[in-house]
Amino acid sequence: xxxxxxxxxxxxxxxxxxxxxxxxxxxxxxxxxxxxxxxxxxxxxxxxxxxxxxxxxxxxxxxxxxxxxxxxxxxxxxxxxxxxxxxxxxxxxxxxxxxxxxxxxxxxxxxxxxxxxxxxxxxxxxxxxxxxxxxxxxxxxxxxxxxxxxxxxxxxxxxxxxxxxxxxxxxxxxxxxxxxxxxxxxxxxxxxxxxxxxxxx
Length: 201
What we know:
Number of helices: 9
Shape: globular
Largest sheet: none
Order of helices and strands: HHHHHHHHH
Structural class: mainly alpha
Helix content: over 70%
Strand content: under 5%
Oligomer: single chain
Number of strands: 0
Number of domains: 1
């Protein structure tokens, strides 16, 4: 199941973006695939791990690093080879003035809990090196960025996200919980989407 679950998540994102042409379908399908996989697998990981931290310094470190990603997107926007028609692409995915802010709110407040429990909890391990789950976590973002940034920027983004996944996995082991990764992920999701919203509206 640990190999099937990521495949279902990738499939959901692909269908949402390239078949249904809907950001909401991609995100909600992604969450349904993950939660469905978890309900079938029934991992013996308490949900309380999402709210557990042994040292608040790791929360601060994680949040600052996560927030820096959105700041970086905003400051270096012109270096990513952003597609000239990105606003139109986002509109075609259903992200308009009426839906952008609810999408950001759901993405920032819900997605980090779902992803961290899945990627760093269920699929996590105690290896100190880069593992397949770090790569799989980063890889599905390439589907989201495809056709929206320069291919080299997409590759760099996947490399950075692989390191982020590895870092949050190490943080889980160091801090004995997932609260720091969740809040860091939340800061990253919020600031990145906010930067995109500001730049495209």
